[in-house]
Amino acid sequence: GAGVSQSPSNKVTEKGKDVELRCDPISGHTALYWYRQRLGQGLEFLIYFQGNSAPDKSGLPSDRFSAERTGESVSTLTIQRTQQEDSAVYLCASSSQGDSGNTIYFGEGSWLTVV
Amino acid sequence: QKEVEQDPGPLSVPEGAIVSLNCTYSNSAFQYFMWYRQYSRKGPELLMYTYSSGNKEDGRFTAQVDKSSKYISLFIRDSQPSDSATYLCAMSRNNRLAFGKGNQVVVIP
Predict the structure, then answer these.
(1) Contact: A104, B97; criterion CB under 8 Å
(2) Which residues in chain B are closer than 8 Å to A44, comparing Cβ atoms?
(3) Is the pLDDT confidence value at B1 over 70?
(4) Which of A13, A40, A80, B24 has the fewest CB atoms below 10 angstroms from its CB?
(5) What is the pLDDT of residues B43-63, one digit of tens each?
(6) Residues of A within an 8 Å Cβ radius of B
(7) Is the peptide bond before A61 cis (omega within 30 degrees of 0)?
């Protein structure tokens, strides 16, 4: 596609349920990022994938959060046993280089509400 | 101390005014400095990008970086209602971006 595609765009889930968020990066982009943005807050780094290297998971807030990426394609972010504080927009971004900020493109986000 | 500080207070200006936004940072390892614009319920889009101290202009937008003071600014000249959005500063090192909280800007016609 022309840009980074994320699904679902909106998700309302009950506390304790698991959710899976999907990201389709721009074709050919080797780097993929997940960020979380809470209401009125800046973007919080979660995880970074670069090609076939081991992902940088240092931003994942707890072991309820995990992410996978198959090769240089789709990534899924999974949140297990969701809590109300997980309510946020989850933004995916991809880059052709992964070593600077000038080629990072964001998707529209997945808006998660935990009730 | 957070890596990037951006006063999130909303800013309302009349159409045609100059908008001035700024961020400070604590880590001198940051290499690249960006400003993103984010419209309501949209993802951030890159507005300005620079990697050295000094000014960079692009149309009505000027980005300023002062590495010695660890301070960056964004100026919007002749502001338009379409400039109403949240503006996030961001800095890059080691393959990740650190973001400020964002400034909500409203340009009143």
Answers:
(1) yes
(2) 99
(3) no
(4) A40
(5) 999 899 888 888 999 999 999
(6) 4, 31, 33, 35, 40-45, 48, 50, 56, 59, 91, 93, 98-102, 104-109, 111
(7) no
